[in-house]
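Hey, I was hoping to borrow your eyes for a little while. I've been staring at a protein lately and its backbone has me curious. You're getting the sequence in one-letter code plus the fold written as tokens. Would you mind checking whether the tokens look sensible for this chain? Here's the protein in full, and shout if anything looks odd to you:
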Amino acid sequence: MDIDLRERFEEIRSQVSNIQGWISDQDGILLYKLARFNAPKPNIVELGSWKGKSTVWLASAIRDRGEGLVYAVDHWKGSNEQIHKELLKDYEEDQLYYEFLNNLKQLELLDYVKPIKMDTISATRQFDVNFEIGLLFIDASHEYEDVRRDFEFWSPMVMVGGFIMFHDAVDSWPGVKRVVMELPKWYLPIYYNYSLIIQKIK
């Protein structure tokens, strides 16, 4: 990795350090590399954005790539997971969404992001039938049924040669892990740690 890229990663790490979220620097770098260098088309879809920590990594990659857009899909109401309920208990309506927008605005990244403020399944209707996704990042609800539904609704839009990254594909999130264990054989696993990256090969 050349020194300029290392410096770029350090710059983004610094930018996201004060944004609340659960994406690690390692996974952020993976998202950046996939979006900037590997996605066959710069159409990036993120399911679950919270306050924009992972969105910043993706949008920075798109800005550096010089083309494309990040479609950030979230209803910005949190999930049924206890940690979300606790963090949002004192929030006013749409406060989380405006925090997301403000975080991107401060880093001058809003031009590279299209927020889609609705649930992940309804959001699929916002896309043309011929729309092709180069990278799909699945990080919304971690319940099995929800992850499975997100995969089934969105994966047909991922182009051959495109990538899907599942966040939290570990034992502590059995719903996500179960979905990745059931993946069709035409998805090639290429990385597994806390997240699983797969490539659509047919």
About this structure: The two ends are 30 Å apart (CA to CA). The chain has a mean pLDDT of 94. Helices lie at 3-16, 25-38, 53-65, 82-87, 95-106, 120-123, 144-154, 174-181. Residues 3-200 form a domain with the Rossmann fold fold (CATH 3.40.50.150).
